[in-house]
Specification:
Length: 163
């Protein structure tokens, strides 16, 4: 089963920036990285008038857009899928999954905490928090890394989940 590590934190804390750095570092080490980004507000890659939009409007429950080298799947799920359900349904060719935006989930978490966004953590070691990446001192009962030290966080993830 592909391991999942969630990068969580408040809006504007730097989660996406950290994930970008982590992806590059993990790839340099030879790992295949998948990501899952959750958006509570929803999204749509279909645009009115396009063929795929027309297929969905006609009633297709799954539409696959395919081109040389890229595939996108749009599926009516009827509910907000969990990270595990998304992994099991769609991700098959990766060594690790980094997720962003799923604050309340059972998977190991690295919380990003930036001083200006507030000093309170949204996770605890009881929530499977394994580390904090922060630009301010914080006592969370887990290892704290500098917010810019993606390499040390990747080393921890490699040690815990990829070795």
């Amino acid at each position: 089963m592909i391991p999942i590590v969630s990068i969580v934190g408040r809006s504007g804390s730097g989660k996406t920036t950290l994930i970008e750095k982590m992806i590059g570092l993990l790839r340099e080490k030879g790992y295949r990285v998948a990501t899952i980004k959750h958006n509570i507000h929803g999204f749509d890659i279909d645009h009115e008038g396009k063929d795929s939009w027309r297929h969905r409007r006609a009633g297709a429950c799954v539409t696959v857009l395919a081109s040389p080298g890229t595939v996108a799947v749009m599926e009516d799920t009827g509910k907000d899928l969990s990270i595990g359900e998304i992994r099991d349904r769609y991700i098959h060719n990766a060594d690790i999954i980094l997720s962003e935006g799923f604050k309340g989930n059972p998977y190991p978490k690295v919380e990003v905490l930036r001083g200006p966004t507030g000093y309170e953590l949204i996770s605890s070691s009881d929530d499977n928090l394994i580390a904090v990446a922060s630009d301010v001192p914080v006592d969370a009962g887990v290892e704290r890394f500098d917010i810019d030290d993606a390499a040390a966080i990747v080393d921890l993830i490699e040690e815990l989940f990829l070795s």
